[in-house]
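pinned: reference chain
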Amino acid sequence: MFNQFGSTAETLSKASAAVLRIGTDAHLYDDPEDVSIAPLLDSKFESEKCEALKRLLALIAQGFDVSNFFPQVVKNVASQSSEVKKLVYLYLLHYAEKRPNEALLSINYFQKDLGDPNPLVRAWALRTMAGIRLHVIAPLALAAVSKCARDPAVYVRKCAANALPKLHDLRLEEHAPAIEELVGILLNDHSPGVVGAAAAAFTSICPNNFKVIGKNYKKLCQILPDVEEWGQILLIGTLLRYVVARHGLVRESLMLSLHGLESNGFCENDGLVRDKGDGDKSDSFDANLVSLVSKCYIEGPDEYLSRSNCADTVPSSFDTKETTSVADNEDVKILLQCTSPLLWSNNSAVVLAAAGVQWIMAPLEDVKKIVKPLLFLLRSSTASKYVVLCNILVFAKAVPSLFAPHFEDFFICSSDAYQVKAHKLEMLSLIATTSSISSILREFEDYIKDPDRSFAADTVAAIGLCAKRLPEIPTTCLNGLLTLVRQESFTGDLESVDGEAGVLVQAVMSIQTIIERDPLSHEKVIIQLFRSLDSVKVAAARATIIWMVGVYCSLGHIIPKMLTTITKYLAWSFKSEASETKLQILNTTAKVLISAEVEDFQMLKMIVLYVLELGECDLNYDVRDRTRFLKKMLSYKLACHEPAEGSVASQENIAEHVVDHVFGRKLKPFSPSALHNRFYLPGSLSQIVLHAAPGYEPLPKPCSFFFEEYDQLSDSDRQREARDDLNGSHESSETVDEDGSSEYNSESYNGSDFSSDGDERNNANDAADPLIQISDIAVSTDQEELRSKRALDMWLDEESSTSNRSPSALDRNQNSYAKISIGDIGSRVKPKSYTLLDPGHGNGLKIDYTFLSEVSTASPLHVCVEVLFENSSTDPIVEVNLEDEEAMNVSDSAEQTLLGKANASYDNVPTLIPMEELSCLEPGQSAKRLIQVRFHHHLLPMRLSLHYNDKKVPVKLRPDLGYLVKPYSITIEEFLATESRLPGMFEYTRRCTFTDHVKDSRMENGKDKFLSICESITLKVLSNSNLHLVSVDLPVANTLEDATGLRLRFSSKILSSEIPLLITITVQGKCNEDLNLTVKINCEETVFGLNLLNRIANFMVEPSSSPS
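pinned: its C-alpha cells
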C-alpha cells in the first residue's frame, strides 16, 4: 500500500498514533525521565513547574518511587497557579503517609486555601487534607470539613461529604458525634449532588442512625429523582431501611401475603398475569416461599443460618403491631411514589434498587409494575444481564405468574454467556405453563443441538424440571428423552467426547425424575432403560440405570422375571466397569437377592457370590470395603438354600433396611435446592454470591425505631453543643499576611485564649498537710494581658514590645487560694481495659489489655502492658504467645522521623520484650501476662502475631497516649516556672463538660463537695493516664456551692523525648450541676500535646461508674 512513497502499514499506524497524540501529555509516559526534574521544580516559571509535576505523576502512574522530590514539591504548594497547586495536591495525596513531617509543614497552606475565593481551590485543599491518612492532622481535617460543610459552593460541600468517610476510617471515636452531626447537616442540603454524597457518607458512617433520616425524610424523598445515579442507589436503600425500622412492613404487600391470604383475595383475583381459561395452574404464588423470603430480608446471616439447619421449621408470623397500611401511612406512600419513576432509569442498579422497594413495600396489585422495567434490562450488557437475572429468579420463584406471560423474553441468544444461558433455562422451567410449554419445548429442541454440550446438558435437565412441575406433559417429555438416549451419537465410546457424556447423564436422570412420580405407570419406560444398558457406555448413566434396577426390582410382573438375566449381565461386565458403576452393581445385587422369589433364589445367590468374590479382589479400596461389608451383612442370606421365613424374618428386615437405605440410595445430581433458602436483599452483592458478602446488612427489625418529633430541637441543640465542644477554644485565630488580609490558619486549633498561670507563686508551708490549706497563690490580670500579647508577638515572629514588664503589675489584684489535699487515691485508680481479640474472631480466645503505670525495666521507651487471656470455648487452648510481627523493622524514614532524635540511642532496643508462653489454657480459665512494648509512634498501632493451637492471627495493639508519658514529680514553684517558659505556640486549650461528680453517691453523705469534685476529676485523669498530681487549688472567696476557679495541676514527661508536659484543669460551675472544664496543656512537642489534649477532653466527657 503506497509503496511508491516508501510507506508501510506499520509506519502509517505509527504516524496516525502520533497525530492523535498532538496537543496531549501522552509524550510524558514515553520517557518521563528524559529531562532533569529537580531544576524544573525550582524554576521561577509556572509552566516549567507544571511540566515537572506532570512528569512526576507520570512516573507514579508507572510504579516508580519519586518520594525523594517531596521537599521540593511541598515548596510549590504556595504557588499562585491553580494548575500547579492541583498537581502538588495530587502528589501530596500519594506520599503524605510516607513523609508525615514534611506533609505537616504544608497544613498551613491547605488551611489558607480553604479561604480562597476560588471554590475549586477550596475543594482541592479539603480533598488533600482528608486524603492524608494521618491521625495527627485528623482534628484539623475535621475542623476543615466542618467549615466546608457550610460553604456556599455546591462542589465544596460535596467534597466535604466525600471527606467524612475518610475521617471515619481513622477510627476517631472521640469525634464520632461531630462527624454524625455533619452527615445530618449535609443530608439537609438543598443540592442533589451534596445529598447523594451525604447518603454515601451516612451508609458508611452511621447506617442505623435513623434519627438523622427522620428529620429530613420528606425532603430526601422529594430530592431523590434529582440525585446522581449512584447516590440514588444508596439513598433508596437508606429510605427503605428507615421506613421498615419506623413503620414496619406493609400489610397489603406481597411480603405478608401468607398472613393475609384469605382476606386479600389474592388467589381468587390476584390482579397479576393469569388467564383462567387457558388451563394454567391456579397457584399464582408460593405463599410459604414468600414468607421465607420476607424473613430472610429481615433476619441477619447468623439468625438465618441457625434457622436453616432446621428445614422443617415453620416461619414465625409477624406481629400486627410491626405492620402498617399504605392507605394510612404517608411515609410509605411518599417512598413508593418517589421510587416509581426510577424504575425506568438509565442505570440498571437504580432500577434494581427501585424494584426492590416496590417488591418489599408495594401492595399486591402494584407489584406487577416491576416486570417490564426488569425485562428491559435484559437488553443491557452481559454483566448487567446476569445480575438482573439473579434477582428476577428470586421474584419468579416466589411469584411465577409475574413473568409467565413474558416467557419469550427469556429465550436464549447465541451471544449470551454460559451463566446467562443457565439462568434463562431455570427461568423458563419456573414460569412454564400448559399454554406456553409447547413453545418452550420447541426452543429446548434447538438448544439440545447447541455446540456447547454443557449448555445442552442443562437444557435436558430443564426438560425434566418442566415435566416435574406440569403433570400434563410427562409423556411428551419422556418420548423425547428416550429418543435422546437411543441416538447413535451415544452408542459409541463417549468418554473422549467432551460434554456428550453430560447430556446422556442428564437425560437418564431426567427420565428417572419423571418416573419417580408414578413408577407403576412407567414400567415399560424402565424396561427400555434396562435394555439400553449394553449400548450406554457412560459410567454415571450406567450407574443410574443400575440403581433403578435395584429400586424397581419388585415393580410389576415383567421386571422381576428379568432380574436373573440383568444380574448375569452385570456380573459378566463387572471387571470392565468404572468404580462408581461397580459400587452400584454391588448395591443392586444385594437388594435383588433380598427381594428374590423362591424359583430364582439359588441362581441369584450364585451370581451374588461371584460378584462379591470379584469385588474382594478389586484394585479400588472403596469397592473392596463395600464388598466385605455386604458379604458380612448378607452372610445369613448366602448360607440359606431358599428365602428365609419365620424365625429369621426380623433379621431379614434389618438387613433389607440397611442395604436399601444406606447403600441403595440414588446419588442425586447437584441441585441448588440447598441454596433456595438463601435470599438476600434485591440488588445486593450477597444475592449474586448467595452468602453474606462483607458489609451486607439485612433490613432492620420492623418498628424497632421510635422517632419522637418533639425531641428534634433538643437533639439539635445537643449536637450543636457537641460541635462547639469539638472546636472548643479552637476559635479561628487569624494570621495576618503581608497585605494585612486575614487568612484561615492552622493555629486556630490551638485556641485564642491563652489563660495563664505562669507567674503564680505558692508560699505555703508543705510540711503541714491539712485537708484545706490557705496559700498566697496569686494571679495578676495585667500579667495575663501581657503574656497574651507576648504570645501573639511570638506567633508573628516579631520582637516583643512588652518584654519589660512593670514589677508593680505583679502586686495588684491578687487573690488568695486554698490548697486542697485529697490524700492517697492510688488504690482507687482503675485503668481502662481494651480488647485485643474478641472470642468471635479468636475461636473462643478472648484477650484484653490494660496499660500500667509501672516503669519499664527494659528502657525508658517501653510501656508496661498487662494482657489478660481468657478461654471462652469448650476446648483447651495450647501454646499461646504474642510476638512482634514487624521484628525491629523500623527502617521507614517517616516513622524514624516521627520517633525523633531522642530515639537515636535506642535503635538496638527490641520493640517487644517476649512474654512467657502460656502452655495450656483450660475452658473457662484465665491468665495474665506482662509485656513491655516500644511503640514506633504515639498514634500508630503495633502489629503483633498471636500464636495459639498452631494458628497465627495478626492483631493490633493500639497505643494509649495517656501512658506514653511518665510521672514527673515537681513542686508548684517548678511547675509555674516551667509553664511560664511554654506560652504561645506551646500552649493549647480545650473545653469539655464533666458530670461524674453529680452521680457520686458520697456527696449525699455529708462529704465535702469540693473534695468530692477534686477526687472525681483526679480519679478520672489518673485512670486514663500516667501523670503526677502537683496541686489542687480553690479560691478562698468562693461560696459553698460555687466551684468556679478550682484548679488541678498535673505534670509528666514524654517517654520518647523526656520533654516536660504540664496539664492544668480549671473548673467552672456549681457543685451540684454539670461542670465546664478548661483543659490546658503546655508542651514543646506540638503534635503530641494536641493529641493528648483531645484524648483528655474526650475521656473527661465519657460517663463512668461511681468510685467505690
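why pinned: Residues 181 and 716 are 9 Å apart (CA to CA). Residues 229-247 form the longest helix (19 residues).
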